[in-house]
Design brief:
Radius of gyration of chain B: 20 Å
Strand order of the largest sheet of chain B: 1-9-6-4-2-3
Number of domains of chain A: 1
Helix content of chain B: 40-55%
Number of domains of chain B: 2
Largest sheet of chain B: 6 strands, parallel
Number of helices of chain B: 16
CATH superfamily of the largest domain in chain B: Dehydroquinate synthase-like - alpha domain
Radius of gyration of chain A: 18 Å
Order of helices and strands of chain A: HHEEEEHHEHHH
Oligomer: heterodimer
CATH architecture of the largest domain in chain B: Up-down Bundle
Number of strands of chain A: 5
CATH superfamily of chain A: SCP2 sterol-binding domain
Shape of chain A: globular
Strand order of the largest sheet of chain A: 3-2-1-4-5
Chain lengths: 188, 395
């Protein structure tokens, strides 16, 4: 009997989108790094995530086989970007396909809007997810121009301009050094 | 922020509705291949004689349940679901028939997850989209006209170990069939009729303006609003009105279909939090918060809220009201319905009238409300201070 994986010679083949995939990987990596840095320097982001227990991990992934990132709360309450998502993070936010991923990662649609249209599925603790989404909104506010933030958030968080620009500069300067941390660094 | 370029609408539930709909239960079980169903209910349903009503309606058939689990409490949790799942396994059941209100139906959904997927750990399945594949045969017979849970992909169950609510969202949770028979709601007292009716109205109204709204859910929502607005006070006044009971039950199901496909917003965030902190009846909380949250969302959803006036008040009132005044008139109609139900059944209009909420509870309710997942679907952002202000208005 033939292998069930064998397909007819004229069966259509999936048409990959290498550029979209590369962009999604790059954008997710930047979001992961920025999230980790923002948690260290911005008191509001820190406050939103303060309820997450030590060792708590949350991931953002593009379904089914796209890129992913994971962040983990270290023993000393510091958030670290740890690279691709493990098999079972505490919270997994899964962008259901590449179109949904690009809508969120190019900031053309809000994550709420994509979520409401079933483009984003969440498994795990929902109150924790709400805190993470609020923190993500703050990170976007720190990273992006106001015109874009107004498009992707229901309301722009009122961060004082001086603090926002100082933190934005600090985040961009720290991004190259906020790469994935190895397992033994989790105590940080 | 709202662009309607893609939506999903899913309702595979077969609906059997009418004055003798219960008689069809044995055929439906046979269609689904279930010969030894577990009945999930609560003590109130049993005491009201509703299980006897079902057994009488199916008396001439070969319908014979393998077991009855009637231990579901009002605010059901993971331990109850695990106990029911144990009974299901011990008695070799092959399907579930839920007879009850929201707590019973949500518990039955959780039991179905456990008996199909295995194990006793519901937490692993919590969240949106974590449950996949087909579950065991599952039929729902609602005994209230409000939750709409017979047609929703959502279940809320308390985590008894951690003392918090677990939310499950998955199309797999949808029952195979829902049986809407007015005999099951005839004995509802006026206060419960009024509160559950306002719950249905809230489902339909939030479905019509929250972020997941779509043309198909809109059509179900509009019809549900029209029926509730026309029938709720009359049925509360005359509980034995069988035709009115059937219409209200159908409106509740339609509102369930609508909000299962567009989800609900801030009214539910506040209601869930008030229920968790102060144990206020869900329908009562919905009724209290609905007009306040509509006013809060006017900035973002004025046009959609204005359109509610048509199903709420009819074409004459709608077309005689200037465009700009329709949103406020729609909210005024809801307040008028509230007043009527308060006079007819003693339905509380303010949090202070429930006798369960103290002003010092409002901070904790506000903190809890912003962590409720329904908030994600609300068009207007709400932080702790906004929720606290809304609670103060509603107090």
């Amino acid at each position: 009997m033939n292998s069930i994986k064998q397909t007819s010679h004229n069966a259509p083949k999936p048409r990959r989108r290498p550029f979209a995939r590369s962009y999604a990987r790059l954008a997710l990596g930047l979001v992961g790094r920025a999230f980790a840095v923002a948690q260290r320097i911005d008191p509001e982001v820190r406050r939103e995530l303060s309820g997450l227990p030590r060792g708590f991990s949350f991931a953002l992934a593009v379904h089914p086989h796209g890129p992913s990132i994971c962040l983990r709360m270290g023993d000393k309450g510091r958030l670290s970007y740890t690279g691709p998502a493990p098999e079972r993070p505490d919270v997994l936010m899964r962008l259901q396909n590449m179109s949904s991923a690009l809508a969120v990662l190019t900031f053309s649609k809000s994550a709420f809007e994509v979520y409401a249209r079933n483009g984003l599925a969440v498994s795990g603790d929902l109150p924790a997810t709400m805190a993470i989404i609020r923190a993500l909104g703050l990170v976007e506010t720190l990273l992006l121009p106001r015109a874009i933030v107004r498009r992707v958030l229901k309301r722009v968080p009122p961060i004082p301009a001086l603090r926002k620009h100082a933190e934005r500069l600090a985040i961009y300067l720290a991004l190259p050094f906020a790469g994935p941390r190895k397992e033994h660094d989790y105590a940080a | 922020m709202q662009r309607n370029d893609y939506f999903e609408f899913h309702n595979p539930v077969k609906i059997l509705a009418g004055k003798s709909a219960l008689d069809a239960l044995p055929n439906e079980l046979e269609r689904l291949g279930s010969h030894r169903p577990l009945i999930v209910a609560d003590k109130g349903v049993r005491a009201a004689g509703l299980i006897d009503v079902v057994m009488k309606a199916t008396g001439e058939s070969n319908f014979e349940p393998a077991a009855l689990f009637d231990e579901v409490p009002p605010d059901s949790g993971t331990r109850t679901a695990a106990a029911a799942a144990r009974l299901y396994r011990e008695t070799c059941c092959d399907g579930i028939v839920a007879i009850g209100g929201g707590s019973v139906i949500d518990t039955a959904k959780a039991v179905n997850v456990l008996v199909t997927k295995g194990g006793d750990d519901l937490v692993a399945y919590s969240g949106a989209g974590a449950i996949t594949g087909r579950l065991s045969p599952f039929i729902v017979i609602p005994t209230t006209a409000g939750t709409g849970s017979e047609c929703t992909l959502v279940a809320v169950v308390r985590d008894d170990d951690r003392g918090r609510k677990l939310l499950f969202v998955s199309a797999s949770l949808l029952p195979d069939a829902a049986i809407i028979d007015p005999r099951m709601t005839l004995t509802l007292p006026p206060l419960v009729t009024a509160a559950t009716g306002m719950d249905a109205l809230t489902h339909a109204i939030e479905a019509s303006y929250c972020l997941g709204k779509n043309p198909l859910s809109d059509s179900f929502a509009e019809r549900a609003i029209e029926i509730v607005a026309r029938r709720l006070a009359a049925v509360t006044r005359t509980p034995s009105d069988v035709d009115g009971r059937l219409e209200l039950a159908l409106a509740s199901t339609m509102a369930g279909i609508a909000f299962s496909n567009s989800m609900v917003g801030l009214v539910h965030s506040l209601g869930h939090a008030t229920g968790a902190v102060c144990h206020v009846h869900h329908g009562v909380a919905m009724s209290i918060f609905l007009p306040h949250v509509l006013e809060y969302n006017l900035n973002r959803r004025g046009a959609e809220i204005g359109k509610l006036l048509l199903p709420l008040a009819g074409p004459e009132a709608y077309f005689s009201t200037p465009d700009g005044k329709r949103p406020h008139e729609a909210i005024a109609r809801i307040r008028a319905l509230q007043e009527e139900l308060a006079a007819l059944a003693g339905l509380p209009r303010r949090l202070s009238e429930t006798g369960k909420v103290k002003r010092e509870d409002l901070d904790e309710i506000a903190r809890s409300a912003v962590d409720d997942a329904s908030l994600a679907y609300n068009p207007e952002e709400a932080d702790i201070a906004d929720c606290r202000a809304l609670l103060e208005h509603a107090y």
